[in-house]
Amino acid sequence: MKILIVGSGGREHAIAWKTAQSPKADKIYCAPGNAGIAEYAQCVNIGAMEFDKLADFAAAHEIDLTVIGMDDPLVGGIVDVFEARGLKVFGPKQNAAVLEGSKAFSKDLMKKYNIPTAAYENFDDAEEALKYLETAKFPIVLKADGLALGKGVLICQNLEEAREGVKSIMEDKKFGSAGNRMVVEEFMTGREVSVLTFVDGKTIKTMTSAQDHKRAGDGDTGLNTGGMGTFSPSPFYTDEVDEFCKKYVYQATVDAMAAEGRPFKGIIFFGLMLTPDGPKVLEYNARFGDPEAQVVLPRMKNDIIDVFEACVDGTLDKIDLEFEDNAAVCVVLASDGYPVSYEKGFVIKGLENFKDKDGYYVFHAGSKQTEKGIVTNGGRVLGVTAKGKDLKEARANAYEAVNWIDFENKYYRHDIGKAIDEA
């Protein structure tokens, strides 16, 4: 088979790496790709939002399956463009990707179908939101309705912070048009867990659990980022939690989308909060998490092409998802200054240290091949992942591997997976 992967981050690198292991994969392309992905795929200079060019490429190169990694093209309707041309594509159509594309839509869906989530109100007028906040209980959470690179969530401790938040989201448009509408949500306490699932419109199969670290600084301080590291599995995601979520959250969401005339095919990422009142949904994403994919896919035993095809063909009930009985930890190496401002173009040294090292991986998020060699080309540069027999060993291995890599202004958190020590 000829496979095309759309995207350029660590998530797409993990997908390309996993796809390359399939005996079915004859030739892999990635648009636009990055320097790390180039090891497994031929990178194609077409942007992820250039739908017609991508579809033309897929048709001209007789691509058998296109896999959409990123949220923007999914929410923008790339799957509809491909399907209209008779091209086989993995991912939700635009009317289903709204599950991630609009937080207001997803909150209303959960309310309508009794899927457990935080109490909330939606606003498209800043004055109305401010009026509501006068009587709100703090802390409280403000969320930009649309896509904001995983950064459009503000936790406000008091009314003054909330007023600032409304101004930055709805008036100053800090997150662009994503802030035209806003969700104001009760603040939930508990452990956060991420569960990725495959869906074929009616059947849902869960992958192993993971936990992300969103904040830029150690001890969960600093600004929200796209993710500074992750570990899998989460020791807090018990069999009891799994049983509850399968019944009241996962299948309920798939059934709700089908009932709304928006059957979902692809990946639903469930961001959960394990509250004192039981698991509740924090958010939905319509694709693999980044960096969650970097710890989940190395533990997956299945041929990923089989699973992609089953989702597209509606035969997921015939797939038995299997994961290794071990653990994985990913530490993101970023450019110092991320997520605000940072320099690019520094040579990355030590990538060769990962060659033929079983259980150690380096996934490129922001890198570029130049005459000088591979250089930094983003805020999040690399995801260093290692496996171990348990989380403590995986964590020790990942931090050992972090030292194999060097580049100027290298920055990373030192406490990824530290919650493991408390479990």
UniProtKB/TrEMBL annotation:
Biological process according to GO: 'de novo' IMP biosynthetic process; purine nucleobase biosynthetic process
Keyword Ligase: yes
Highest taxon above the source species: Bacteria
Keyword Ribonucleoprotein: no
The ATP-grasp domain, residue ranges: 107-316
Catalytic activity: 5-phospho-beta-D-ribosylamine + glycine + ATP = N(1)-(5-phospho-beta-D-ribosyl)glycinamide + ADP + phosphate + H(+)
EC main group: ligase
Needed co-factor(s): Mg(2+); Mn(2+)
Enzyme Commission number(s) from the entry: 6.3.4.13
Record GO terms (molecular function): ATP binding; metal ion binding; phosphoribosylamine-glycine ligase activity
Pathway: Purine metabolism; IMP biosynthesis via de novo pathway; N(1)-(5-phospho-D-ribosyl)glycinamide from 5-phospho-alpha-D-ribose 1-diphosphate: step 2/2
UniProtKB keywords: ATP-binding, Ligase, Manganese, Metal-binding, Nucleotide-binding, Purine biosynthesis
NCBIfam families on file: purD (TIGR00877)
PANTHER family hit by this protein: PHOSPHORIBOSYLAMINE--GLYCINE LIGASE, PHOSPHORIBOSYLAMINE--GLYCINE LIGASE, CHLOROPLASTIC
HAMAP family tied to this protein: GARS
Family designation: Belongs to the GARS family.
UniProt protein name: Phosphoribosylamine--glycine ligase
Gene source species: Murimonas intestini
Source lineage: Bacteria, Bacillati, Bacillota, Clostridia, Lachnospirales
